[in-house]
Amino acid sequence: MLLRRPKLHLLPDLLPSWAQCRGVFHLGKAGSASELRAARGTWQWREFAVFLRPEVQHTPFTARLLQKGAVMRQERQQSLGWRSPVPEVMGILLGDVQGAGQQPITFLRQVTAISTYPRLLDHPALPLDAKQRAREILANCAGNSIGAYTEPEGIGAVRHSVAQYLEQRDGGVPADPNNVYLMNGTSNAMSIIFNLLIDRSRSRRTGLLVPVPCGEVSWHTISMLGGVVLPYHLDAEQGWEVTAQELRRVVEEGRGHCQPMALCVTNPGIPTGHVMSRRCMEHVIRFAVDEGLLILAKEGHPSDIYSGSCQQQTFKKVLSEMGPKYAGVLELVSFNSVSSGHIGESGARGCFMEVLNMSPAVQMYIGLMLAAFDSASVTAQIAIDVATRPPQPGHPSYPLFQAEKRESLRMLAEQARLTEGMLNTIPGISCAVINSGTFAFPRIELPDGAREAAEAMNLRLDTFYSHRLLMDTGCLLAPGGDFGLQDGPWHFRMNFLLPLDKLKLTLEKIMEFHRKFMAEFS
Amino acid sequence: MLLRRPKLHLLPDLLPSWAQCRGVFHLGKAGSASELRAARGTWQWREFAVFLRPEVQHTPFTARLLQKGAVMRQERQQSLGWRSPVPEVMGILLGDVQGAGQQPITFLRQVTAISTYPRLLDHPALPLDAKQRAREILANCAGNSIGAYTEPEGIGAVRHSVAQYLEQRDGGVPADPNNVYLMNGTSNAMSIIFNLLIDRSRSRRTGLLVPVPCGEVSWHTISMLGGVVLPYHLDAEQGWEVTAQELRRVVEEGRGHCQPMALCVTNPGIPTGHVMSRRCMEHVIRFAVDEGLLILAKEGHPSDIYSGSCQQQTFKKVLSEMGPKYAGVLELVSFNSVSSGHIGESGARGCFMEVLNMSPAVQMYIGLMLAAFDSASVTAQIAIDVATRPPQPGHPSYPLFQAEKRESLRMLAEQARLTEGMLNTIPGISCAVINSGTFAFPRIELPDGAREAAEAMNLRLDTFYSHRLLMDTGCLLAPGGDFGLQDGPWHFRMNFLLPLDKLKLTLEKIMEFHRKFMAEFS
Question: What ipTM goes with this model?
Answer without folding.
Answer: 0.84
